[in-house]
Design goal:
Elements lengths: L16 E5 L5 E4 L3 E8 L2 E6 L5 E11 L2 E10 L5 E9 L11 E4 L3 E5 L2
Antiparallel strand pairs: 1-2, 1-9, 3-4, 4-8, 5-6, 6-7, 7-8
Length: 116
């Protein structure tokens, strides 16, 4: 296996928040990548992000969720290996297709990293 290279994020502007893994502080995404804060994860509240970095993707599986059947894959922090959420690969219902290719990060598994 090759060497992993972590990507460090920069978040300019008024909402200069970087979201990182609460276990190892690896950068995962920024505030401006949040699509919605109205999601529920396995540990409580969750955010839908358009783009995340520093994650490895698990295998695809179908899961029945509150909004219907979806094909998803767990995403793991590359810093510590902890599952931090999942990626939507396919939504079976037309009204849920906007989630495809986007990521859920669970709030309880995140920490805010303020940029100085």
């Amino acid at each position: 296996m090759g060497r992993l290279h972590k990507r460090y994020l920069h978040a300019p502007g008024a909402n200069n928040r970087i979201y990182g893994c609460s276990s190892c502080l690896t950068h995962l995404s920024t505030y401006d990548q949040i699509v919605s804060k109205q999601f529920q994860g396995q540990t409580g509240r969750a955010f839908l992000f358009g783009k995340v970095v520093n994650v490895a993707e698990g295998t695809c599986e179908d899961r029945q969720m509150t909004t219907g059947l979806h094909t998803v894959r767990d995403i793991l922090c590359i810093g510590c290996g902890r599952v931090v959420g999942w990626k939507y690969e396919h939504a079976y219902e037309e009204s849920q297709r906007y989630k495809e290719g986007k990521f859920i990060l669970e709030k309880m598994l995140l920490t805010e990293i303020l940029e100085i």
